[in-house]
Specification:
436 residues; alpha/beta; 25% strand; 11 helices; FAD/NAD-binding_dom; single chain; oxidoreductase; 3 domains; FAD/NAD(P)-binding domain; four-stranded parallel β-sheet; NDH-2; NAD; flavoprotein
């Protein structure tokens, strides 16, 4: 096996996991190459679902994938650890020492040699240096953060319910800074939670006692999406009694409030930061690889880094040019999915001495899901290039299909069908919200 071409993929997010699955099934299974995935977590959950984990409408335990078990089934190797550096001359990835929750070292720093390296480490929240954001905001970059948010939310509801029983002031103010897709969808999920939890014993706290605000610096929510979609989303949030504060940059976050640029102070016992993303900081010092101001690795259209043809990058951590456009490929799940497919073809070609496949992004539209209330979005026509606005059950069906497509890429059609059936049974047997 040591003589086999070694492909190392760092980052087991949506794109990275889809890539190693395809490579393992084709190259690893037939011993044409050795494929290794490196990730700092033991399990994978599709990142667009983290806001549902946070609100409790999705049980992460039933939807996470264990990397070791998946690796064995799909003929690749898994290494637990966080990438800390790179030695391009020796062609080695440096993996930081791994510590347990008590701080004890489990595995020391180590190096993994590669012939081809793929970096797909995703992104983290960008607080733009806003005072108090790191100290007082909750973030949803990882499954651990989503679970922490869920526990804090349940405790906040329980505390306010007890205060209501005692006749005290029990208003709960929740603020979401950033009205992109994550912020808007999280607001709808939290409104659902405020209406569902009283059914499970917290009947002294009413949904009207829970104030949810979405704060956006731009002049409208969902600023990166078409105006019609933004208008529809605003109407739906207001229908769910979510306050929409557009054109309101945040200047400071305090322990129990959010301060706007104009000096307005908004009470907030729970504040979530969902405004902007950036690539992990360690990429800016990765043995001479070129990065932009957002720490993204700059890549060619083939997804090869500009300084090293044996190192590729894709997904949120890469700045990939688009033909006939000044803007790079947007950091979206559908882009990572398409890049994983193109890179799979390129890496298979490399073993056969063939050319790399240039990546061309195809925007299939956008869908915004308002929990169980409704879904709105636009779909791009493949032939005409025009977008078609959709909403309601049809839009909801398309939204659900996105996750099923991800599952098909990881498990195949038959297993995905079984998973779908198990999900239906689980929903019939368990509460609508995760209560612990």
């Amino acid at each position: 096996m040591s003589n086999l071409h070694h492909i190392v993929v760092v980052g087991g997010g949506a794109g990275g996991l889809e890539l190693v699955t395809s490579l393992g099934n084709r190259l690893g299974k037939k011993r044409k190459a050795r494929v290794t995935l490196v990730d700092a977590s033991l399990t994978h959950v599709w990142k667009p679902l983290l806001h549902e984990v946070a609100s409790g409408s999705l049980d992460a335990n039933a939807n996470e994938i264990n990397y070791r078990a998946h690796a064995r089934k799909h003929h690749y190797e898994f290494q637990l650890g966080r990438m800390g550096g790179l030695d391009r001359e020796c062609k080695e990835v440096i993996i930081d020492a791994f510590h347990d929750d008590e701080g004890q070292e489990v595995v020391p720093e180590r190096r993994i040699s590669y012939d081809t390296l793929v970096i797909a480490v995703g992104s983290t929240a960008n607080d733009f240096g806003t005072p108090g954001a790191q100290e007082h905001c909750l973030f949803l970059d990882s499954l651990r953060q989503a679970r922490r948010f869920h526990n804090l939310m349940l405790n906040a509801f329980l505390r306010k319910n007890h205060e209501a029983m005692q006749g005290k002031d029990h208003a709960l103010n929740i603020s979401i800074i950033g009205a992109g897709a994550t912020g808007v969808e999280l607001a709808a999920e939290l409104r659902l939670a405020s209406r569902e939890l009283p059914v499970y014993g917290m009947n002294h706290l009413q949904a009207s006692d829970v104030s949810i605000s979405v704060i956006e610096a731009a002049d409208r929510i969902l600023p990166a999406l078409p105006g019609r979609l933004s208008s529809a989303a605003t109407r739906e949030l207001e229908r769910q009694y979510v306050k929409v504060l557009a054109g309101q940059p945040v200047s400071e976050v305090r322990e129990n409030s959010v301060v706007m640029k104009d000096g307005t102070e908004l009470p907030s016992e729970m504040t979530i930061w969902a405004a902007g993303i950036k690539a992990p900081a360690f990429l800016s010092d990765l043995d001479g690889l070129e990065v932009n101001r957002g720490n993204q690795l700059v890549v060619e259209q083939t997804l090869q880094t500009t300084q090293d043809a044996d190192i590729f990058a894709f997904g949120d951590c890469a700045a990939c040019p688009q033909p006939e456009s000044e803007r790079p490929v947007p950091p979206r799940a559908q882009a990572a999915h398409q890049q994983a497919d193109a890179l799979y073809k390129t890496l298979c070609n490399r073993l056969e001495g063939k050319e790399a496949v240039p990546f061309v992004y195809n925007d299939h539209g956008s869908l915004i899901n308002f929990s169980r209330y409704t879904t709105v979005g636009n779909l791009m026509g493949n032939l005409s290039g025009r977008s078609m606005y959709i909403e309601g059950k049809v839009a909801r069906l398309f939204y659900l299909s996105l996750y099923r497509m991800h599952q098909v890429a990881l498990h195949g059609m038959i297993r995905t069908g079984i998973i779908w059936l198990m999900d239906r049974i689980s929903r019939a047997m368990h509460p609508r919200l995760k209560l612990h």
